[in-house]
Amino acid sequence: MLLKSIPMKFMKNRIVLALFLVLFSGAMISAQEIIKDSAVVAVTKTSSNKKLKIDGVIATVGDYIILDSDIDKGYLEITSQGGSIKDVSRCQMLGKLLEDKLYAHQAIQDSIQVTDAEVKSMMEDRVNYMVEQLGSMDKVVQYYQKDSEEEFRTYLFDILKENKLTSEMMKKIVEDVEITPEEVRNFFKKIPAADLPVFGAEMEVAQIVVEPKISDADKQKVIDRLNGFKKDIEEGSSFATKAVLYSQDPGSRASGGYYKMNRRTPFVKEFKDVAFSLGEGEISAPFETTFGFHIIYVEKIKGQEIELRHILLAPTVTEEALKEAKEKITLIKKRIEDKEITFAEAARTMSDEKETRANGGALINPKTQDTRFELTKMDPSLYTQVSNLKDKEISAPLLEEEQQGKKRYKLITVTNRINEHTADYAKDYIKIKDLALKEKQFATVGKWFDEKIKETYIKIIGEYRDCSFTNNWLKK
């Protein structure tokens, strides 16, 4: 949703910093080794006719330290992601770094685990993005002022590991925070009319999907291949290597098929059912989901969480099957246009997409779990498909190819348009509930900071003691 006016006066000031964390976690910032507070000083060498710039410790949070140069690195990271540092002071940046260190420090105290495999997967995605933006690995290394790719990767690994600890700690703090309808109502009532948020233009979209039929013989080929992988692994081959070489899941292939998940992780039911039926060290038989066929290997079980690897293979779709699917969806379109059947009825009875079938083809926004899609934040591929459609107009049959190589045809239509408007409690309840929940979460985070600052060793040195921080870092 596009919030043009947010009732910020009703939320604590630390919300700004919390939002800053959300925006830049994964891109941010200074990771130092965990070292005890001591007379550790890094010296940046300059040419012989210039004075040495001493890069000393400016703050300590628990077992973490912050160097003066970490603030400069923070600015560098923000600009590398296309952000603006125009209104970010050094005191504000230090406040953000202090928050990060406290999150990470407490994550370690609470025994929150972050595996190297997770971090390496994140690092590969980040490195690929930066290489794409700057043109080459050499330019990335130069941009970050490192002497080699190895040094840069070590630096980035430490950053991402600390960021992951930070984000996991944040999740833990707010994971049990819930909000009641009465709390939502009270939140909305206390907002003056002049401060009500304005929501941007949105639309509701529905689709009908026809998937090409895959023969039993083609399915069996994939099953046999996965069984072959399983046999090789049981005889000593590496599951991770097989996943890197053969898996068609772009989200996990680079990390050897690795995922960490719990019962609430938004994976398809079939995948979760198999994953949680396995014991540690066990490999599943091949099984089918909407994405294709999988095998799963469970590496570790930690309470309600499991760490696993999987390999995904999708059967090949023949040209004949594609042709038949297009003919079928073209006929469905004609029947709707001839008013033999409504779009919603056709979706319920003839669509192959079970996630939308029961709702008459209505798409759910994955970010909000609502049926509305904000135009300015809509997925570009979906926006391209619907932007020129009139109300109730049905698109031509669209051939869609997913990242896994799976192909299908679909019809799409706009079922409702919502113009930009001031928040209305009845019409925008889900959005208002989300705002109210965020306020409650931020209050919970604020209380957490107040408690942990009191019980954690924190020291700020020199001129930075004159900063006006949102949180009571100086314990005055």
Summarize the structure in words:
With 476 residues, the chain is an alpha+beta fold. Helices cover 43% and strands 17% of the residues. The chain has 15 helices and 14 strands. The chain has helices spanning 14-24, 68-80, 90-109, 116-134, 137-143, 149-174, 181-189, 216-234, 239-246, 269-275, 319-337, 343-350, 354-357, 380-386, 429-455; strands spanning 41-44, 53-61, 64-67, 198-199, 202-210, 258-261, 287-289, 292-302, 305-313, 372-374, 398-401, 407-418, 421-422, 458-460. The strands form 4 sheets. Strands 1, 2, 3 and 14 form a 4-stranded antiparallel sheet that branches. The chain has a 4-stranded antiparallel sheet with strand order 10-5-12-11. A 4-stranded antiparallel sheet has the order 6-9-8-7, sandwiched between helices. β8 and β9 (305-313) form a beta hairpin. α3 (90-109) crosses α6. It is globular, with a radius of gyration of 26 Å. It starts with 13 loop residues before the first helix and ends in a 16-residue tail after the last strand.
Number of strands: 14
Rg calc: 26 Å
Helix content: 40-55%
Q: List unreliable stretches of 5+ residues.
A: 1-53
Helical/strand content category:
alpha+beta
What sequence of helices (H) and strands (E) makes up the elements?
HEEEHHHHHHEEHHEHEEEHHHEHEEEHE
